[in-house]
Structures are given as structure tokens and as C-alpha cells.
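*Target chain*
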Amino acid sequence: MPEDHSPSDEQLVKDLRRGDESAFRTLVTRHHDDLIRFLTRLVGDRTAAEDVFQETFLQVYVSADTFDVTRRFRPWLFTIAANKGRDHLRKKGRRRMVELSAPVGGGDSGRPASFVDLMEVDIPAPDAALDRAEQDEKVQEALDALQPTLKEILLLAYFQRLSYAQIADELGIPLGTVKSRLHAAVAQFARHWQRVSRDARSE
């Protein structure tokens, strides 16, 4: 396998600070798909997610000089995106807002689904009872029923794949708070997913 010589995110931020606009375009392209998926789940709408994505990278552009290049860029980016998404939901007046591999129920053929399974909507299971679009809609419905702080930390944990300690560091909250919020978030999501799955089967 050929060695990857592409610059790191952190190097690209350094290049951006020196006025290299192509470095910024590379960062936008590199993180577009993951960040759009995260924001679509967070704000519940693809069009709104695109708007928040633009706002996020505008903030990255104007705040590049404040980024500590000894740290990782991706958590910083997703934290900005989460803040922008939260602002969007607040403006719209929307009040809805353990381990991720823990089973949450509602699986097919007696198989318990997990949060990670459900978030991988781009690769639906062959024996899925709901087709891709329907499952995507139901997952979003379950996510939207979560409290805002729980929804945010669950999505950040999933998309960033950070440890408890890293999440605590990036969000500026105690390690115990991270653990309790994630535990509560997974439990709440499980209850809501079982409800929407049951409702879907009874339709």
C-alpha cells in the first residue's frame, strides 16, 4: 500500500494561517461528508445541516489563528459544529433536541440492534424490516426525542469516536458527567427507538 503523503489537518491549518486558501478548501472537502452526517442527525434536516456546515467552516476560517495546532483538529471542528447546530435549534425554538455498541432492541430476526448499527444508515442490513429511507427517518425521530445535551454528546461520541477522557476535555465537563450523560443518552435512545420501531411495525 503506497504511503499517504497528504498533509495532516493540523498542517493544513498552519498553511491556512499563512494565507494558503487551497488548504482551507482541502479541509472543507476532507470533512464534508462526516460533518454533514453529524449535523443532519443533530438538527434533523439536510438543508439546515448544509447551512450550519457553511457557518461552521466560516468560524474555522476566521478562528484559525486561535487553534492550538498541538491538538487535533477534528474534535475542535465538531465542537464548533455542535455549537452552531445548537444555535440553529435555539433560533428555531426547538426544545426537543454506556457504550455505543450496547444493544438497544428493535432488531430484526430476534437480533438486538445497537446504536452504532442504527447510525450506519448508509449500509442497511440485508434483512432490514424497514427500507433505508424509512429506517433513516425512524432513527432521526428517536434522536429528536432526546434532550438536547444527551443528543449532542451521543452524536459527538459516535462521530468523533473519542474516549470518555477526550470528550470531557473537549467539552470542558467532568469525566463522570460524560459517563452519566452517555449512559442516559443510550438508554433514552433505546426507549425511543423501541417505540418508533413498534409503531412502524403496527402501521
